[in-house]
Amino acid sequence: MAPSATTAGTSSSASASSAPNRKFIKRPDDKAIKEEIDKLKNDIKKLDLTNNEINAQIAKAQIDQKVMDKRNKLQAELKTLIAKQSQGKNERQTINDQIKAIDSTMKKRIAEIQQQTSKNNFKNVAEIDARINSLDSLIDAGNLKLADERRYVKEMSSLRKLRKDFGSIEKTQALIDQDKEKIADLKKKLSATHNKEVQAKFEEIQKELDAINDSNKTIISKRNELYDKRTEIKKEKDAKYDEIRKIRSEFDEKFAHFKQQLAEEKKRRDEEYKQKLEEEKQQKKRERAEKELAEASIPAFTEEINSIHNLLSYFDPSYVKPAKRSEASTLPTNTNLRKIDFPEDVVIIKKEQESFFAGSKGKKAKAKKQTKPKNFTVAPDVVVALSDLAIPFPTKEEEVEETVKTLKETLTALEEKQEEQTKANIERAKERIAKLKDAEEDEDEEEQAEEEQEQDAE
């Protein structure tokens, strides 16, 4: 018989909820990448073959060895001359720098002298001395007017003062003369650095090399062409290698992202599994708590009281179990509790072959005479039940009445304490449930704090 649509839908939804929500993560396809890289490697091999052919052609396109030796010798000499010319150029540059520095200093000193001499008509100390001597002769002659004599005396005083200032000018002039001599010496050195012989030798060697190159122009041109091709092939190979590195780098990035997604997916599934286990754990705790509360709600001493009723029925067949009290008086009102039905009677373990009590006074005893047993026996289960209640079992018929009395007293005591003990059991169960709820809330708070820390760390 085919299952109904309702049943199929229920089973599929149940399986979907129990199965983990798995996210498919596609692995990067490395097959196409390998094919592309292999193609590039084949291209590189082809380029290597072409390069080998070019090297072979270069090896064949050789100039006569004697010519090559002479050419190499001339090139070596040319390099030596170029080095000398370079050295001479550096020396000329150094000398020119020195000349410029000295010339700059000399011009500053000349400007200082010109600034001092521009205020008067004297160029040197000799001219000042000549003027002083001339004025002194005029004064000594005694033919001057008093005003002219005073004017000449004053002028002589000024000239003597000017003469002292011209002493520093003479020192500056001496330095200027020294600078001129230095510049002249440096210019002589500069002329010496222009080695005409080196230049002439350079031009001679260059002409010889040009002649050799012209005579072997075809071979050299072919070799240069082959060199250019080889350089181009090297560039192509480098481009191929760069492309391979780029492809591998891109694949590595994709694969790293793939691994990261796998790790994240595994972490997510682990968290879901952990959450599921935690939910199952909490569900079991709740079920256990409900079970404990339900068991605590069962009237206390129920098992002991039922056992006493069975024992009284065993020892006294005329005993009638009283009607069952309403559970509403002992059980608390709680709609969330599971309803548990208890059997009103239990099976009494008792042998029917013979009576354990001699001389029953009932009407049946008068109608039919019973055989008195030789030995007084008690069923093993009855002995165990009495032992559980801490009541001694009778070893002879005369002790049965005392056992029945003890059973009734025990029954009364248990029934009096039943309601109080039931309430105490319920309170203890409620306390355990409250502690369990507090523990759950603490765990939830710890988990939330851990999640917040992980988010802050990310």
Automatic annotation (TrEMBL):
Compositional bias per record (Acidic residues), positions renumbered to this chain: 439-458
Classification of source organism: Eukaryota, Fungi, Dikarya, Ascomycota, Saccharomycotina
GO cellular component: endoplasmic reticulum; nuclear outer membrane-endoplasmic reticulum membrane network; ribonucleoprotein complex
Coiled coil regions in record: 30-91, 169-215
InterPro entries named among the record's database cross-references: Bfr1
Compositionally biased spans, kind Low complexity: 1-20
Encoding gene (name): BFR1
Gene Ontology BP term (one): intracellular mRNA localization
Disordered: region residues: 1-30, 266-290, 432-458
UniProt-recorded name of the protein: Nuclear segregation protein BFR1
Key words of the record: Coiled coil
Gene Ontology terms, MF aspect: mRNA binding
